[in-house]
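User: Okay, second chain of the day. Same drill as before: sequence in, structure tokens out.
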Amino acid sequence: MTHPAYTSYEALTHDTFSVLMWSLSYPGRVYTLPHTPESAFHAIAETLLDIETSFFTPDDAMMTTYMANGARPLGADRAAYHFYSALDIPDLDSVQVASIGTLMYPDQSATLIIGATIGAGQRLTFTGPGIKPQTPATISIDGIPPAFWELRQKAIRYPRGWDVYFVDSKCVIGLPRTTVVHVEE
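Assistant: Same drill. Structure tokens below.
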């Protein structure tokens, strides 16, 4: 039995989805997104958004681009995906109202895709599922306001909470809601 060949678009979205999946499976590891002529944010949006999904972004250019594939722009409190090319202090108001799902439907929580600088800035230690207890993941992420970590801590009530992707150029780190983050002082 033969299978139809992937188009280059299908291969790109498949490979991007695989990177996103593995980055949530092994928090704290840096994964490289597949090569694309567009930005990493665009590749992620092309992979996750379709006519059945919703998104929020404060960026007008992203809004126009992401609407082109049929995804619905919604308010920050109702959108399934949030895209922030950079997370500024005023953006924390939108993050704070992002859905954390419910006990019956934790899958209705928002997924945050946030631009950051990986390998510089605030040192963080991740522990939890997907991370060996004897070797917690220690990473540095810059461009994330300290208040974000406090908001996340308040929002995580397993199984409710946000899943987060930090994107730096072509690199991504996943932070699932099950991961405990220790911010080093």
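The longest strand covers residues 117-127.

User: Thanks, on to the next one.
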